[in-house]
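tokens incoming
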């Protein structure tokens, strides 16, 4: 079979391919870097022909051309499993809704609970000699969408890395209906935020708990970058990687010789991830790299899989915490910021791991319109979403230390959390805790 001949038979322009979309359709766009870019731009041109086209996405990294073309939402309306910055703009404009989920369930929800997408649009790296097109830079739930679709359209971008699997990281040309060769626009990148002094203080508390052979999961931002830099500059060895998001910190750790995966219980010697976002250097690093493999998120984020890996260390961030240990990582009051993502998956999985640890980090204060406010408060504000419930929370970290929630009563939790709050807010937090009946006279004065 000559796969190149079949590829040529399925080759279309973007304008031709999007003619498959009909009014009333649900569409699934693949994740992050692999969002269809020029296909969405072509679809936007059909605005006046189409009504009530509903698009699902997970972190829309490219411009949302269909929404730019239709400020009414009558022709195109988007739904996002997790809010990126671009998604948030359209959410606030009333043209995009959030789909609540915990990340490892996304493929199952796509297969069993969502209205099936009639058309799926994906970006992928160029076809290999065996007829496969790789979307492994973001393979979270793409195959779940493909399985239910009537029409599969793939947009080829030569700048996308070809990422090996793993599982469900590529699609064969025989499963594709139309192929569109894009103009190969440069991929979206995320700036590598330099850690602040406080970020480094927080990272310093965590690094003391990491030892040879630990398997690391990092989120995004200054604190993970600070931890990655500290690990790279340390004498730690034989670390493993199993993470939903592959970030630049892993590149630095690997290049410094800290990551081998030699002590992992599963996927030994392999760095496992579900999607990548970061610098061009990161995309080049994961390209055709047998040591870095992409998995669907129902494997990568499944707490029962994470639990199989001994000495697991999960490091994530949050917006605020209350004195009961409830963690909010997705809203400020009712204002939507991000989503649950995989935080709950990794908090649960890491704790179930032998010797596992889950850290959720935050600076002790935040600057707002009304001045400096504490991130540790008596209760979460009205409308705030509980991302990690108090029953699951393990270790909470600020620049003032670590508060371990496991096995603690409500008054013990309050004491531990007030001890890592900013000193300027501790006296008031004690008064609030006493009024809430979660403070005892025998408590230490924080």
């Amino acid at each position: 079979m000559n796969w190149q001949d079949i590829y040529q038979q399925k080759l279309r322009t973007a304008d031709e391919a999007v003619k498959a979309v009909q009014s009333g359709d649900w569409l699934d766009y693949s994740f992050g870097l692999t969002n269809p870019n020029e296909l969405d731009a072509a679809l936007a041109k059909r605005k006046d022909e189409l009504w009530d086209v509903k698009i699902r996405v997970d972190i829309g990294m490219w411009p949302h051309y269909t929404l730019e073309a239709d400020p009414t939402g009558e022709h195109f309306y988007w739904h996002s499993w997790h809010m990126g910055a671009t998604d948030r703009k359209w959410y606030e404009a009333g043209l995009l809704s959030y789909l609540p989920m915990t990340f490892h369930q996304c493929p199952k929800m796509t297969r069993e609970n969502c209205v099936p997408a009639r058309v799926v649009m994906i970006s992928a790296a160029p076809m290999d000699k065996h007829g496969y097109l790789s979307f492994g830079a973001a393979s979270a739930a793409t195959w779940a969408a493909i399985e239910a679709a009537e029409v599969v359209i793939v947009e080829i971008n030569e700048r996308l890395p070809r990422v090996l699997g793993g599982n469900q990281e590529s699609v064969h040309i025989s499963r594709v209906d139309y192929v569109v060769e894009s103009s190969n626009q440069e991929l979206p990148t995320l700036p590598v935020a330099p850690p602040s002094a406080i970020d480094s203080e927080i990272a310093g508390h965590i690094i003391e708990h990491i030892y040879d052979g630990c398997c690391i999961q990092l989120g995004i931002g200054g604190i993970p970058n600070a931890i990655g830099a500290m690990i790279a500059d340390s004498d730690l060895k034989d670390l493993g990687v199993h993470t939903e998001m592959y970030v630049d910190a892993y590149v630095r750790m690997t290049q410094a010789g800290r990551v081998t995966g030699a002590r992992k219980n599963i996927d030994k010697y392999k760095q496992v991830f579900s999607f990548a976002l970061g610098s061009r250097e990161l995309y080049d690093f994961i390209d055709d790299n047998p040591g870095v493999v992409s998995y669907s998120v129902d494997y990568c984020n499944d707490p029962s899989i994470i639990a199989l890996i001994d000495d697991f260390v999960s490091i994530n961030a949050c917006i605020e915490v209350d004195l009961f240990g409830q963690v909010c990582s997705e809203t400020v009051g009712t204002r939507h910021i991000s989503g649950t993502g995989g935080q709950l998956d990794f908090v649960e999985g890491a704790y179930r791991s032998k010797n596992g640890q889950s850290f959720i980090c935050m600076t002790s204060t935040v600057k707002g319109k009304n001045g400096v406010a504490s991130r540790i408060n008596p209760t979460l504000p009205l409308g705030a979403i509980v991302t990690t419930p108090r029953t699951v929370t393990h270790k909470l970290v600020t620049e003032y230390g670590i508060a371990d929630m496991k096995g603690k009563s409500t008054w013990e939790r309050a004491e531990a959390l007030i001890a890592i709050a900013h000193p300027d807010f501790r006296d008031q937090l004690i008064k609030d805790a006493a009024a809430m009946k979660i403070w005892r006279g025998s408590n230490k004065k924080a």
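note: The mean pLDDT is 95.
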